[in-house]
Amino acid sequence: MRWKDAEYTGWGRVLKAEGQLARPEKRAGLTALLAEKQVPAIGNCRSYGDACLNSGGKAVDMTRLDRFLGFDETTGVLSVEAGITIGEVARVMAPKGWLPAVMPGTGFATVGGAIANDVHGKNHHGAGTFGQHVAGFTLVNHQGTAYVTPDSDPDLFRATMGGLGQTGVIISADLQLARAKGDIVTVTERRAEDLDAFLALFEASDATYSVGWIDAKAQGDDLGRGILEEAETGAGLIPAPKPSKSVPMDAPSFALSSPVVKLFNAAYYRRVPARGRSVVKPIEEFFFPLDRIHDWNRLYGKRGFHQFQCVVPTGETEALREMLGRISDMGIASPLAVLKRLGAGRAGHMSFPMEGYTLAVDFPNKEGAARLIKQLEDITAEAGGRIYLAKDSLSSRQRVRAMYPEFQAWAAQIAKADPEGDFATDLVRRLGLREAS
Which of 16, 59, 197, 277 is surrounded by the most beta carbons within 10 Å? Predict the structure, then answer.
């Protein structure tokens, strides 16, 4: 297996790595590679910061190990290689009446990455996290190759779900799919005039899928205004998908200047009539709205961007108001800001969700962004919330450990699975997650 020198980045393009990558096409090649040296695995590098980076070291690129291995039509259990994407699973299985039970905001996330970050989707309030629908997975580490299930080794299972790839390399997984009524979604869109109205809509919603776009530029009486989308799968005539587009170059700095974003947000808010509306969309257009704009991260220019994502408990919604006030006052947020209602479900020690509300906002990597994100993290910590490590590029060791109360249980399992620290990545080193104290 050939190692090739490479420079690669997280999706935010702020943090970069130089190292060597290998891209095996078959399991035999991967097995031979790992027998020679244990190294971390990466997928499509859709983590925004440095969770997928290994500067100065080696990593195995799993994206060519992307095959369907089998499907039980009776139980709905699908066996796949870890490099297959969530979007490909949805594309193939939706016409058969099945979908991944949980889908993140991009279909380009691999199954291995979805496990390593225990991703959540627009149905977390009802379905929990991705890892809660994994029947088992095949894992390679210093202890050998093992098929791990919640029953066979519950501690290792929980350490792997949301475990940032630190227990070993996931080769394949068995996924419990969810029944789908068809391969379209009916989406109801409603305006929320401020944060209180937004939260009330979420609390009253009984939709299977729900997600909110929030206007991070709004101020005063409009603070927290946005659009709630509620959706159900269905059957019927599939609307013609919108054509894919590409961002051919790094955008100039003025493309996401404050006046431009403010105008865009105002127009986007008003695109939904005051009375609301219902529309029918192809599945991928609802679940993965930005995927049809290839390389959309280039809109932030050469310097890239940070995403801040937190969750705060249900009773701490005033923390959301304070955060939105700070964001609007600073004036550097992009149009990409999302609010979702989360339930209590989580599969791993280091899984992000808790019952409450999650806010995700993109910030161009410009002056003031890091300072603002630190303020937002402070508010999150004071509210008893946590930040999402799949999106993080700025947090500190002390902050993260305090936010994840099961950290010590996770660390004990990692020490067993990888005593030499061969699977450590840039994020793990930056946050000192493999250090004793």
Answer: 59
